[in-house]
Amino acid sequence: MPIFINTEHKSFKKYKEKSIIKWLEFVILEEEKIPGIITYIFIGDEELLKINMRFLNHDYYTDVVAFDYSEEKEIIGGDIFISYDRIIENSEKFGVSVFNEQLRVMVHGLLHLIGYNDGNEYEKNIMTKKEDLYLNSFGEL
Q: What CATH number is associated with residue 131?
């Protein structure tokens, strides 16, 4: 099933889209799941804040919000909204390229759909290790 990358953000440029999709499918298969329909939507801070407030009652900026629409546990599908503004800001903050930060946030959202959480330090640690593992595999595919 397809993975789509869409944007409503004026600064976002599609780059290496086929490689990214192949990598995301690889992550899903490595996690022993089946790719369903997944849509990534790149938007700005204000749009994602509205989504965060409306659906999650969180009144703060975030880099990613994932909505799981899968009816079967093994099939991964849903919408992943990403603030491209946060990607740009965090890339500067962490001293990484915008593209690297984009990949990190994309895999982070995907890991949420797969079933990982980051509500406490233990869970955050697990997700960060998974993100790092999969980020390192991007260039190998």
A: 3.40.390.30
Check whether 15 has a pLDDT greater than 80. yes
Q: How far is CA 89 from CA 5, 13, 57, 73, 97, in A?
A: 21, 16, 23, 34, 11
Question: How many domains does the chain fold into?
Answer: 1
132 lies in which domain range?
3-138
Which is nearest to 1 in space by CA: 75, 73, 74, 61? 75
Structure tokens at 125: 């640690």
**Burial degree of 137 (CB within 10 A; 0-12, 13-18, 19+):** middle
3-state secondary structure (DSSP) of residue 108: helix
- Whether residue 42 contacts residue 8, with contact meaning beta carbons closer than 8 Å, is answered with yes
pLDDT tens-place string over residues 107-123: 999 999 999 999 999 99
Q: Nearest 5°: CA angle at 54, between 53 and 56?
A: 65
- To the question of pTM greater than 0.85 for the whole model, the response is yes
